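Query form — protein Integrase family protein

QUESTION: What is the three-dimensional structure of this chain?
INPUT:
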Amino acid sequence: MTTEHIPQFSGSPTLSSEQIIFIEKLKLPSNVTIQTDSRFDSVTAKTDDDLWRFVIGGEKTVLNFTTVSHTLMRKLAKFCCVSFINGGSPFRGSRWHQLKEAFDFKDFSYDGFKTELSSNRILEVPDKYTAIKALLRLLCQLNFPRFSIENLDDFILIPTPNTINPFLKYQDLENAFPSPLKGLIARSILSASEKKESLSDDKLIKFTLFGLSYYTGMRPIQFSKISAGDFQKDTSNEASGLYRYSLNMPYGKQTKITNDKVKIALPAEIGMLVDEYIKRNNLSLEDRFILVDEYIVNYLNDVLQHMLFAIQPKAVQENITNGNIFLPRLTTYDFRHNVGHSLALAGASADEIAYMLGHSSLVAAAFYISATPELAMLKSKALGDNPVWQNMLNLLLTGYAAEEATWTKRTVSGTLGGQLHIKIGGCERPDEKCTLAKVRSCYGCFYFRPFTNLNKHYSVLHCINKELADTLEVSEKSGNIRNPALDVLANLKGEIQMIINRIEGGFN
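ANSWER: The structure tokens for Integrase family protein are given below.
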């Protein structure tokens, strides 16, 4: 139930000494750039200026920061806007207009934001609600003073606008894991599992916790409860190299105190990393799995952020190190949300989602399902994703094009769709051995150097189109319209098409 509310932004916000120190330490890049698909757009602005002017698609967009009266808050506003832009949000003047008043809230804290978001004044303007809530989420992810990472778990308790517009309802979920990022994470974990013996102790620990967070979405409190004996190797076959692992996962949310656990399956690559982790650290079955006793929340979030940086292409790492772009801050909450979001999109029931997330009630699971549109096209639009940014991300995850005649290193050949595709590109992977499927896994890999012979790439695209059509037909006839293989093939098709577009456009 909501009540009328008098806004708290009459005058400058009251900042604590911790907040002032935090803002003063923030470093802004010298320039900010909005990614578009036209070379005629004006997409770069200097962050020192208080007026950021862009021309996108023939329309002028201005972000006017002089409307933020407090000097330090103006710097924080710029930092947050850069973070949104680097994260791929379609950030324009209208979005800034909905957002700017939040930087003048008198009570600049999680509770202050929650009070504002619960007021009719904001609930009756859904666009403003989603913009301010996205800012609140970012401040919590940054662990900004008076905004805790733990507050992210309470977002479900914040009232939402009573709107019949499914686009706005779904956008409120703010999925932070676009398909290219998911592919990058999965490939990095698989690669780490194949060379687990050669990983340093520190890398092994971080890859293991990173993989468990990505595939299970466990909360920090769940990590603190699991022991080495909760991991099991259910079946193994040395001849085929196939293994099955499981985890007895403690409940994440409980209505009463219980020692019951839910058994979930783990991918083989995670199981192999866990085995090596337990062996390296000489853990007995009763020993605590995670090696830290205090500050587990901050420890896990720091591990996730470190790994998100470590798996990026070298060019992206250099830009992040030089301060040209910001790496989005993702926490255990975001990883957990990604699991629930993915299950809901795959058509899982509330019971199945609650089981996988370790919930003893169906409240959160029902929320995921109620905010999931039935149409796949609605999904990408309602998420607020920027398709141009998605394309740019795809390009970043694939290496530059190369000429076959002058290439002297390893080449890529493989079978796909019943056809042999020979020398579609080069490979600069530092390891001699690659465990990924040749051709099928190359188009989204940043070690891949596609050759400029378009006929070869069109041949691969033709095979994928045929495989996609066949899979769709089988899925429809069997009633499995949410077959996850369709998403995998659709993503692969997009990666191949991006390479073709890139070569045709003359990109190097």
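ADDITIONAL NOTE: The mean pLDDT is 81.
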